[in-house]
């Protein structure tokens, strides 16, 4: 029976209930999971899968886990996922500890992590609420350590089976090898390849099994350290083989050997089940509001291959300040910020920063950014009708592309040419106009979303950009 701190759980659930208005039974489903789910089900929860399994709204479920983490019900972990074998390359409790350059010890490959597809955010029940076996990985069985603690279920082979399940089926030997100890792996080798690797070190072996070779006793001594194996490759006959694995390192090494079939020397191409990516989290306003202390390492950024950026500005704001006074104008601008943030959140985006009277927002999908731009324009138009003598004149631009997520002025921000172009596209807009780049206009769902509006194509020369770029001016409804 799971040991649960009832008093702490009840207090935190009460605080979670009052954090905002939730859909019916949402918090109760989370409570039920904390109380009755297995240890494995409470370790590195994928909130998108949780939402699908429980028939919950996906966006609200992400927000739920963020609030639950802020209250201490869960711990949030950033994990680097190998795109080749879907193992956990590394995991971090804080964004500032995440390194963009990483190496998969199973594949012996180096990667530069991107927020889009290699960085996942998961949630594990806080040990103060309920302690599970995965809070103490050093006590796990070697099977649980390799196939559950050091792997993910998100990487799928073409038939939809998690690749980690295939690895379990192909496993012929697993062991923890303590420093200074030797462990024997006795395997009946079949035609193909015996591939050995470790989650804890770069030690690995690859032995080709040739059934044409004469059989006989095969005993191979291998030295393992944290960097390599000696020997690390060879050709052996089919049949019984004993690998005597000696750990000469100063720490325990987990080691496993897989039997790969003939003609297979690497994992099949994987596709990934949906997970909460770093890019999506950084475009979630609740994350930016609740976890303001989360920053990226100051000396490096994290790449994002595709992000939609929206910039706004107010036309004639200087004259507005002069006409109605600083205090009145400031209050008006703050109200305009609140409305733009509400619209941004409604369309699954996040406010990155405000610059004077301007806003920079980020969205996962260009279509969401364009819908937000249209709603922002409508929202400010409605706002102006209530106070025609203090009308605000909004200008909006949207662009998409690659960027680098960085920390600037102790705040998560984006840097790069995509950011520059997005700001320049906004600079093309006049009163109540929206300009979008060709890259945005061509994105899924954008043209359909603009079908009811007057759109005309133009060519613009943007400062800092060599070639002229096609842009689209979005006018009023037709």
Task: Explain what you see.
The protein has helices spanning 6-19, 26-36, 47-54, 58-70, 142-149, 163-170, 278-282, 285-290, 317-324, 326-346, 366-385, 417-428, 438-441, 446-449, and strands spanning 74-81, 88-92, 101-104, 109-112, 119-125, 155-156, 171-177, 182-189, 192-197, 204-210, 219-224, 229-230, 233-237, 239-247, 253-260, 271-272, 302-315, 349-355, 358-363, 393-408, 411-415, 434-437, 453-460, 469-477. It has 478 residues and is α+β, with helices and mostly antiparallel strands. Strands 17, 18, 19, 20, 21, 22, 23 and 24 form an eight-stranded mixed β-sheet that branches. Strands 7-15-9-10-13 form a five-stranded mixed β-sheet. It has a four-stranded mixed β-sheet with strand order 8-14-11-12, with no helix packed on it. Helix 3 (47-54) packs across helix 4 (58-70) and helix 10 (326-346) packs antiparallel against helix 11. It is elongated and about 95 Å long. One of its GO terms (biological process) is cAMP biosynthetic process. It comes from Rhizobium mongolense subsp. loessense. InterPro entries: A/G_cyclase, Adenylyl/Guanylyl_Cyclase_3/4, GUC-dom-containing_N, Nucleotide_cyclase.
Write the layout of secondary structure elements.
Elements: H1 6-19, H2 26-36, H3 47-54, H4 58-70, E1 74-81, E2 88-92, E3 101-104, E4 109-112, E5 119-125, H5 142-149, E6 155-156, H6 163-170, E7 171-177, E8 182-189, E9 192-197, E10 204-210, E11 219-224, E12 229-230, E13 233-237, E14 239-247, E15 253-260, E16 271-272, H7 278-282, H8 285-290, E17 302-315, H9 317-324, H10 326-346, E18 349-355, E19 358-363, H11 366-385, E20 393-408, E21 411-415, H12 417-428, E22 434-437, H13 438-441, H14 446-449, E23 453-460, E24 469-477
Parallel strand pairs: 10-13, 11-14, 20-22
Antiparallel strand pairs: 1-2, 1-5, 3-4, 6-16, 7-15, 8-14, 9-10, 9-15, 11-12, 17-19, 17-20, 18-19, 20-21, 22-24, 23-24
